Fold these 2 entries.
Entry 1:
Amino acid sequence: MEKKSYPVICRFCGNQCHLIAKTDEAGQVARVCPDRDYGTIWCHTGKNVLELTGHKDRVKTPLKRTGEKGENRWTAISWEQAFKEIGENFKRIMDTYGRDALLGIRGYNKPYFNAFYERLFNLIGTANSMGAANMCHMASMGAYRETFGFAPAPKITDKTRFIVLWGSNPYHTDKRAAFRISNAQKKGAKLIVIDPCRNRHAREADLYLPVQAGTDMLLALGMIRMIIAREWYDKEFVEKYTEGFNELKEHVKQYDPGAVSKRTGISMESLEAAAKMIALEKPGVIFLGNAMDHNFDGFQKCRAIDILLAITGNIDLDGAMTGREPMSDKAKEQRGRIALPEKSPFRDPTRREKIVGYSEHFLDNFNESSGVDLAKAIQEGDPYPVKAAYVLGGNPAMIWENRNRLTEAFKDLEFMVVTDFFLTPTAMMADIVLPAATYLEYESVYIDGDDNIYYSPNLFPDSGQKSDLEILNEMGKSLGYTSYFWNTMEDYWREFLDVYHVDLDVLRKEGKISAGTSKEGSPDMTGRFRENGFPTDNGKIHIFSRKMEEQGNDPLPVYQELLQATEEYPYISTNYKSEFFYHTAGRMIQGQRKHEKEAVAFIGEDVARETGIRTGDILVAASPYGEVEQRAEVVENMARRTVALAHGWWYPEEEKTPFDLRACSNNIVPDDQLRGRELPSFTTRGVPCKIYKKQKGN
C-alpha cells in the first residue's frame, strides 16, 4: 500500500489533524487514521472518518420533506432544485416579515468555516445569527475581558507549579492539553481537580475536590475569603495592578469557610489545601471547562475564579495565565476579506437590541439567544415573528435548554434548512436537508498559527457531496448575492491564498509552503501587561467592576441559591462529555460506538444505597421538566447525592423522531426560570432530580 499524509481540519473537533491515507493497488483509499507522530490532537470521529464517509445511513443527496415535520419522510432532489427552493423561500419570508425573521444557527467547532458563514449572514443582515457561545465559552471569555481586559490562556511552562482543572476534563476534550498536563506533573507540578466526577485526571491528582454541581462560585468565594483572611494574597500585585480589593475584602466576609465546606461538600482540609496551593505555590494555571458555562451564574462564577487568580498574582506571569498569541497581520487581513465585517448589522449598536431575547443587562458583545426566547418568537411572534431557520452542523433539538418546546417550535417555522451528515433529531424537523462532505471529499487549504500553508486534496472526487463552504457559497448566490461569492471553489481558494501571495497550483505541487509572516510581540506575550498596564479602561484589573454596576449587574460575584434539592427531588444531576463522541455526533459510527455502546449514568455509593440501584440497572432521572433513561454505573469518591448523566446521547438506530429521545440529558433541564442575567446562559448542571430504577415492562 502507498501511504500519504494529509493535513486537514476536523469538522468536529475543529483542530488540525494530520491523517495518513493508505491506498490499495487500484489507488482507492483503503484506510485513514491519525498520524500520532505529529503530536496534534485527534478525535475519534477523525479516526473513523472513512467509516463515516461510506456509511449506509449517511445523507448522500439533498432531501425534501414529504410528510409532516418530524415524521422523517423524504424524497431526494438535485442540488440545483435545493438551492432554488432555499433561495425562493428565504427571500419570500424576509420580504414579508423582514430580515430578522431568518434565524441562522451554526454548530460544531468550525473556526475554518466561521468567516465564510459570517460573510453570508452579514450580507443578509439578520440580527439573529448565532452559534453556541452562550453554552460554550461566552461566560468565561466575557468574564476574562471584564476582569483583565483580555482573555488569558493557561500557559504551562517549566515554571508552572500547580494546575487546576475546574470543570475541565482534557483527557476527553483536548488531548493536547492532557499531554501537557501529564508532562508538567512529571516535572513536579501539582494537580488540583475540581469536579463532581472522579475522572481520570482526578485519579491522578494531588488534590481532588468533588464539588456539588452548581456551587462552584461559592467554592471560589470561600477560597478568596480564606486567602484574604490569612493574608496569603499577593499584596504587591494587588496594590499595583488591581482596583476594588477593599470592596472585595468586605464582600467575601459573608462566605464563611465552614458554611462553604458544608454546602459544596468539600472538607475544610481540602478547601484550605487548595486555597494555599493557589496562593502560595505559584505560578500556576486554571483551566476553566465547559461546565462553567452551563449554569445561570456562569459569567459571575467565572468572574469569581478570575478574581481568585488576580489576588494571588497568577496572571501575566511565566508559568501562569498569560496573553494569547495574536493572529498574524496576514491572517487578520484574510479573515476580514472573507467575513466582510463592514457589512455586519451590529456596526449599528441599536441592531443588537433586535436580537431575540435581548436584555439591557447583557454584555456588549452578546449576540446569542436562548432556546426559550427563540421558541417564543417562533410560536408567539414575541417580540416579532421568526419564520425561517438555517442550521449548519448543529443539533439544537438536543443540545439547547427546554429542548422539547424548541423542537415543537421548529414545527411552526415556515421553512427550515439543515446541513449535516445524517438525519439528526434537528434535521428531522427540516424542510430541506443538505448533505455535507467530509474533509476527504473536497479540496482544501489550511493555514496554521505560524502561517504555514498546507494543501489537502479531494480523495473522493466522485462522491457528489459539497463542503460546508461550497454550500454557503451556493446559498449566497441563490439569495441574490452573486457578486459577493465565487463561481467555483477553486476561485475561492485562489482568493483565500492571495493575501499570502501563494499560487494554488504551486501549493498543490508542494503540499506545504511557509508564508514567513512575522508576528508582533513575544511568542507567549508574558509580562507585557505588568510592564505597560492591563488592557482595561484604566490599566487596572477590575476586581470590582464599575461597568457591571452601571449596567445594573453585580459588580462583585454574589452566590445565589436558586436550585436546591427538595424532599421530592433529593438528588443533584450534572453531565459529562464522552471521550469517544463530539456532543451528539457519531452515535451511528461503529468505530466509535464500540467503545461506548450506550449512555451510562454515574452515581456514587451513597445514591446506590438509598435507591437500591446497582451497576447495570436502567436508571431514570426525573425533574419537573422531563425524564432521562441511562444505564447506571456505581463509582467511588463522587460528589455526594449526585448523578452524572452522559451528555449528547441518542440512539439513531431506533429513535426516528426528535420528540422522544429517552437518553438525552437535556430532557430534564429547566426552561425559562434559570437563565443568566449578563448573558443568556442556561442551567444544565446542578439540577434537582429524583432517581429510580426502571422496572421491566415499565
Entry 2:
Amino acid sequence: MKTTYISILFFLLMLAGCTDFLDKQPDDMKTDEMVWKSRKETEGYLANVYASIPNNDFNREDPWIGCSDEADLTWNVYSTYGINLGNWSPNSNFYNKWGTFYKAIRASLIFEENVARCPELSNDLITRYKAESKFLRGYYYWLLIRQYGPVVLIKELQPTDADWNNYPRASFDECVDYICQLMDEAAADLPLHWQNETNNLGRPNKIVCAAVKSKVLLLAASPQWNGNKEYANFKNQDGKALANTTYDESKWRKAAEAAKQVIQYAENNPDAKLRLYKNNENGDGTQFNPYKSCVDVHVKLWNCEVIFGRTNNANPRSWMIHASPGPNNLGGVAPTQRVVDAFLMKNGKPIDDPESGYVETGFAENGSDNWNPNNYNLTTDRIKMLADVRNCVSRGHWPGEWNMYANREPRFYASIMYNKRVIPQLPDDVAKRDYYNSAGQKNGYARVEFYYGGMSRQSGSYTFFPRSGYLVQKFNDPQANMRDRTYPQNYGMVFIRYAEILLNYIEALNEYDPSNADIRKYWDLIRERAGIPSAFEATPGMAGNKDLQREWILRERQIELAFEGDRYITTRRRWLAHTEDQGGATDKRIYGDGGRMWGMDINAGNTATNNFSFTGFYKRVAFETRVFDKSYYLFPIPESEIEKNTSMVQNPWW
C-alpha cells in the first residue's frame, strides 16, 4: 500500500451536508453550534478545506502543460489558447485561483479557532486536525506564490468588516518564510507516514511537509527570485521591495537541505515505503523492466513513489480520452518536437551527440532489442503479441517505424505516441483495432495514423487531432480499452513524487557544491530506473562542472517530469521562458515559450494517397507562433481583486 492519496471515504464527508459552510461569513461560522458540536460535521468542514486543492489537470484547473514549451492543446475553447496567443489581461480571469485559495485559507483559520469546541474529538485528534489545517494553509499559499509571486499574508482570522485596503503584499521571502514555518509547525504534530492507517492516506504527514518545503525553497533559490535585478522596481506603494535583487547562495543550501530531509526519511525508515518505483520490487515480475516501471509509476494507484496526491478516477480517465488517438477519442494533447528531441537515446546520449546512434530520416530496418522478445509470428500470434504490447513486455521501436523514434530511451516510449506506433490502450478484438486504421492498413494491430487523411488526423471538419503530429502517451493505462472507454483499475492524481525530490536535491546541491558525491548518487538512481547509463558516463568530463551539470540536470527534469506540470514552473523560476526565437529553418532553442512551436508536417501530401510509407509527414514544421512577454512570468492579479484592495500593487509589466 502506498502513500498519500486522499481516500474515497474521506471525501465522502464532503457530501454529508457540509458543502455550504464555506459560503458563510466568518462570524456566522464562529457561532454555528451545529458544526462544532458534531464530529461528523467538524470533520466535514476540514474535508472542505482540503477540497480546494486543484487537480493536476491538463486544461481545466491549471495552465502548466498547455502553456509550456512541451505541449499543445488543440482545442481553442481552453484558456491556454488565448494565453499562448497573448490575448489576455488582468480582466481575463484565466485560471483565476486567487479568490478560491484565499477562501480556503480563511476556512483553515476558522477551523483552527473552533475545532477544540467539538466535544466528540479527543485532544490528540484536535491537535492533529489543527496541524492538517496549518499544512493546508501553507499549501494554498504555496499554490498562490508559484502562480502570482508575493501575496498578501493573512495569518490570523480577520473580522468581516476589516478594511482590506490596509493589507499590502508581503515580500516574496516573507511569503516563503511563512510557508516554511507552517510546514514545520504542522510536521511537529503529524506522523511520519500513514502506512499503518490506510484510511488516512492522503492527509499530510512529516514527509509531505518536508516535500512541500523542498518545492518552495527551490523556487525561492532560483534566478527568478534570487538576485533578479529585473524585479528592482517591483515594490509596494510605500517603496517596500517585494523581490530580493541580491543573489544569496545560501538559499540553494536551504533548498538542498529540505530535499535531503525527505530522502533521509525514506532511507532511514523502510516502513515509510518510499522509493523510486520499479516493477520487480512491487510484485510485478522478477526481472526489472524499465519501460514497464516508467509506465506503471503513473497508473498504479498508491505506488511507492507517491508522496502527495489523491484518489481521483474522473481526471485520469478524462486525460486518457483527451490523449488517446481518435476516432472515438479526443486525441489532442500534443507534445512539441522540442520535448521529443529532448529524450535521450538508449545509450543515454542526446540525439545531437555524434556517438548517440541517432538517425533523423528513413524507416528502421530492424526493431529494438525487445520489440518482439518472444519471437511471435505477427500474423498467427497477433493476440499474444498484443498482450506483450499491453503488458509492456514488447518495448522500443518496431521494424518499419521512422528512424527518428528508433533506439530511444524507455521514458520516450512511455511518454510519446508517434506515427505508426501500435496503440496499447485498445482491446485485441480485430474490428475494434482496425477501427483506427485506413483501408489497406488494417491488420488487427491499430497503428496510429497522424498524417493528413489518417484516421487520427482526418481532413475536413474533424478537429480533434494533435497539431504537432504526436500525442502524450504518459498517464495512459495500456490495459484500458479506449474504444469502449472501460478501465481496469482505479487511478489517482499525484502532486509530488519521489523522483522530483531527488531532482530538487541534485539541482540545489549543484549550485553551491557541484563536486558533491550525492549529485551522482541520486542522479544515477533516476537513470538506473529509466534503464539508461549514468549521465556521467554518457557525458564524460561533466563531473564537477557546475554549468554543464546544471544544463543536464534541467534536461533530466524535462524528461523525467515531462507533462507533470514541472516544465512550466522550471523555465520560469530559472528565468528562461522568454528566450527569443532567432528565426531560421529549424528550432535551435532548448528554452523559450514564445515564438514558433514545432512538430511534424501534419498537412503534407494528399489525403487520397497518404499512408504509412509517406515520408513528407516527417518534416519539421512550425505549427504555431506563440507570444511570451516578461509579464507572463507571473499571472496578473485579477483586476477585481486589485479594486477590492487598493494597497495591493499589480505584478510587473501588467
